[in-house]
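subagent[fold] <- orchestrator: predict structure for attached chain, return tokens only, no commentary.
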Amino acid sequence: MEQLNSTSEEKILKAAKDVFMKYGLYGARMQDIADTAGINKALLHYYFRSKEKLFDKIFENALHKYFERINVFSDSSLPVIDQVFKYVENSIDFYAEYPKISMFIIKEIEINPELFHKKVQVIKKGKSIKMIEALEKAMAKGEIKKIDTAMFFINLQSLCSYPFIAKPIFKHSLKANDKDYDKDFSTGKLKRSVKNFVESSLSKK
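subagent[fold] -> orchestrator:
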């Protein structure tokens, strides 16, 4: 059988990402992925052998991108508020590329928390967000307001991810189609809004 070229592989991986994000590991079928990619199911099995191996590749790619983008708190040359701004930028860019990943992760943890934890630890390899640690150091130095750092992190993460998770609800409530929603609630507008929350929550000015 001929070698899989880069264009075909990219098409398969994109289709697999869409199907896995929608149905999860256990709900997705190789036939769904083959149909979405526009290829024969036998060809898909030939190159990727099993649904689990294809899932691992998609999941690893997504989490590698995530940890690379949110690893912004090691740059001590930046004030902590600027580090959080960078986190906001990178997080929203990630959710724009993987809009369904939050619901996907919740679903996978609910189904098999031990397996999910093992997969994350392999990919994470000691990387961590370190936001709370950076905020607590900044508070001790008097650089930012006194805050509940855990609650701030939860609120920040929710503001970055929920517009993507709840897009169908917001579209219905606002009577907006995809084009109007994406225009009125662009990533640029969302970033500015979340940064305003960061500024008002942390800045002592």
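orchestrator: received. Logging for downstream: The chain has twelve helices and no strands. Residues 51-202 form a domain with the Tetracycline Repressor; domain 2 fold (CATH 1.10.357.10).
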